[in-house]
Amino acid sequence: MKKQGIALTLIILLIIPLSVYAGAPLDSVKGNVNKVLDVLRDPALKGESGKKTKRQKIRSISDKMFDYSELSRRTLGQDWKKLNPAQQNEFADLYKSLLEDAYADKIINYTDEKVAFSKENQLSEKTFEVQTTVLTKKADIPIYYRVIQKDGEWKVYDVVIEGVSLINNYRNQFREILMNKSPEVLIDTLRKKVGKA
Amino acid sequence: MKLIIMICAIFTCLSLSSSQTFAVSPGDVLEKSIIETEEEKPPHEQEKKPLITDQAKPDAAKAEEPKSLATGNNEGEEEGEGETVKIADPLRPWNNAMFHFNDKVYFWILKPVARGYSKAVPEDMRLAVSNFFSNLTMPIRFVSSLLQLKIKNAGNELLRFVYNTTAGVGGLADAAKLDFGIRQHDEDLGQTLGSYGIGHGFYLVWPFLGPSSLRDTIGRVGDGFLDPVSYVTPWESAAGIKVYHRVNETTFHIGDYEDLKKSAIDPYVSLRDAYVQYRKKKVEETDTPAEGESQSSVQPVGQPEPAQKSMTDIEPDQQPLEKPEPVKQSGPVPEPVKQPTEQIESVKQPGTFFKHAETFVKLPELTQKQVGQKPVEKRELLKSTVPDNQHGSNPVHVQIGVFKNKSNAEDFKEEYKKKGYDTFTLECPTKQPGAIYRVLIGNFRSKKEAIQLASEIRSNEKIDAIIYHE
């Protein structure tokens, strides 16, 4: 009887849609970062030949890990409304390529760095900051991931490295352009930067 | 090589003499400290701004309020996101020229030299050199920590110096970190000035030295006096040692600047912003030991539980002062309730040096007034999210009201007991005769649970609820 009860509970638990509980933000970030580390340390992908595969794999992980539309919107802040919907979409796409190009190469060269996951801090009802530290021989680099709950998953919308927030850093650069130029110019600049002119 | 030394030496003199002129007028510095921190939220989050009622507040508190409001808003209350830190850049043409100059210095001189050097010298040896210099510059960190009342950090620096100089063979190995996990905390006089509330003034790029600001330049000159290397004679040797140190450090950062340039739309703006954000974080860092540092033998005296950078400072005078019906005001002189600092994790904000010193001295003070809370607009109050591992063994409660009158407190307690909350009252002594009565919901095993409940209460009951530690 007791066994049946347990079995029943298990079944009920399984039926309840998993999306109700998104899991702790820390676990989510940890899972994704570990996936990336696994790819980086994959002995099968060593050397120059493996780099392309590595890059592809990391890109597919980052697609799931980041919420690029949230990231784009928060980057532009109040300027976001200056873009029409088509421009917003294109901006998000280009911005994503820019970030991927810029950081994929850097990440790919990491091999034996360790990542420590220390804690998560709630920033608002929906957002958390997951604090991690990359331990290198020379120094410990604090990297914080800011995540937001979207469709039952935790998505990264900002990365803060040594106190420098990615989206804040870009916001200042974009704002300088948008101050006296049209959104089209901004998008054109981005196109040139990522080589999609 | 000799040429570089010469150039550097000349520059060092130049920077010294020019900053002396700066140092003459500290009042000017204060005046010019205009970092504008600008608030903006993503469009979908533009909701309510915190509303603070001014009634029933003494003039003194009123006078102080705008200032604290400003810092509170900017620094962390708004979830730390969507905030843009700006710095005045009146010397942009000069800065831009120096940015390009430094760019060339890096690619043409520093990087090739560092590359060659790192090929010739194995990494472990370069690390040892780096450790040696870090150990040598201990006075900068020690004095800066003391000036910021970061007693624990200062003690750690002292310990580290003694241990690393002996067990670490003259500072070549960071033995204190390896053996005891006592880490170095980067402190300098620029940060110290920042912690006193002095702003950057304006952005300033120095040739060879890179991004700085008026404030940090002054700090740097002071650091120079605390750096033993500066006292090496003749001055050419001192300059040579500094250049060597720089080259050695660069070997660990080859590629960083390239990455910044590659990822930036406008590298000048990107670097300027990164500098300001980085320094802001450094200034905000508190005396909190990082994980693994708890073994440190130096305990802060009368210091509240070290605050986490990520926590929100709740200014005493930001306490909601709207009262629910049951509260009766008795004294003719209303005064804002000061939350004792240990209840609310307070963060050290730039500009809180004096406030900090104040809490340092009269910590457990509780003023007499009661507060009942209900404003809905004060939701930001509870953004103080606190890591679970921080609270130790003290029970954590959610506070839903504070009363001067015991029976009012009891009524309030009963009211919420009926609603299904596990409420109880706690009598807390105050400096003045009489006590205040807190209505609490307790005991939580983890702060997270308490925070969760507090936020539920705030949204369901439309009253304010904050975290209370015993």
Number of domains of chain A: 1
Q: According to CATH, what is the class of chain A?
A: Alpha Beta
Helix content of chain A: 55-70%
**What is the global morphology of chain A?**
globular
Largest interface, and how many residues on either side? A-B, 47 and 48 residues
**Average pLDDT over all residues of chain B:** 68
Summed up, the helix count of chain B is 16
Distance between the termini of chain B: 62 Å
Q: Give the tally of β-strands of chain A.
A: 5
Structure characteristics:
heterodimer, A: alpha+beta, 5-stranded antiparallel sheet, 5 strands, B: alpha+beta, 4-stranded antiparallel sheet, 16 helices, 8 strands, elongated
Concise synopsis of the structure shown:
The complex is a heterodimer of chains A (197) and B (470). With 197 residues, chain A is α+β, with helices and mostly antiparallel strands.
Structural notes for this entry:
The complex is a heterodimer of chains A (197) and B (470). By secondary structure, chain A is α+β, with helices and mostly antiparallel strands. Chain A contains seven helices and five strands, in the order H-H-H-H-H-E-E-E-E-E-H-H. Chain A has helices at residues 2-15, 25-41, 47-65, 68-76, 85-108, 166-180, 183-193; strands at residues 114-122, 127-135, 140-150, 153-161, 164-165. Chain A has a five-stranded antiparallel beta sheet with strand order 1-2-3-4-5. In chain A, strand 4 (153-161) and strand 5 (164-165) form a beta hairpin. In chain A, helix 3 crosses helix 5 (85-108), helix 4 (68-76) packs across helix 6 and helix 5 (85-108) packs parallel to helix 7 (183-193). The longest helix of chain A is centred in the middle third of the chain and has 24 residues, at 85-108. Mean pLDDT of chain A is 84; it is low at 17-21. Chain B is elongated. Chain B has a four-stranded antiparallel beta sheet. Chain B has a two-stranded antiparallel ribbon with strand order 1-2. Classes of the chains: A alpha+beta (197), B alpha+beta (470).
